[in-house]
Amino acid sequence: MYDKSDEELAKAEETIGTFPVEVIERFLSSVEARRPCEACGHSSWAHIPSYPLFQMHCTNAQSLVLQVLPIFCQQCGNTRLFNASRIDYFVRMEIQGDKDAAKNA
Ligand SMILES: [Zn+2]
Q: Which of 83, 22, 21, 71 is nearest to 47 (CA)?
């Protein structure tokens, strides 16, 4: 979860919101995001083209914002949300091999 100023959030969006589709696909595969649905058992998942991120605002503090990537069960509509900061970590560690990210995790 983020507790950042609007400027910091805009910068984070700029950075996190621009993952190439291939990177998102690699992340989703690495965490087995499309394993059978916990609600209905089906394994068919959909997403919004280009994988836009969504923001969830805390009801008690508007400065607390969570950026998430949703995928949807095509059978029942169950929605899985993946934290964008974890995708960012995946990019830095698994794709770019950022050693500093490992120290700060
Ligand atoms: Zn389902």
A: 71
Full residue range of the structural domain in which residue 25 is found: 2-104
74 CA to centre of ligand 1 in angstroms: 7
State both tokens at 86.
């974890």
Query: What are 76-104's pLDDT values in tens digits?
Result: 999 999 999 999 999 888 877 866 655 65
**17-20 long-range CB contacts below 8 Å, 24 or more apart?**
17/52, 17/53, 17/67, 17/84, 19/51, 19/87, 19/91
Q: How far is the CA of 39 from the centre of ligand 1 (A)?
A: 5
Separation of 41 CA from ligand 1 center, angstroms? 6
DSSP state, residue 46: E
Each residue of 38-55: pLDDT tens digit?
999 999 999 999 899 999
More confident: 55 or 13: 55
Please count the structural domains in the chain: 1
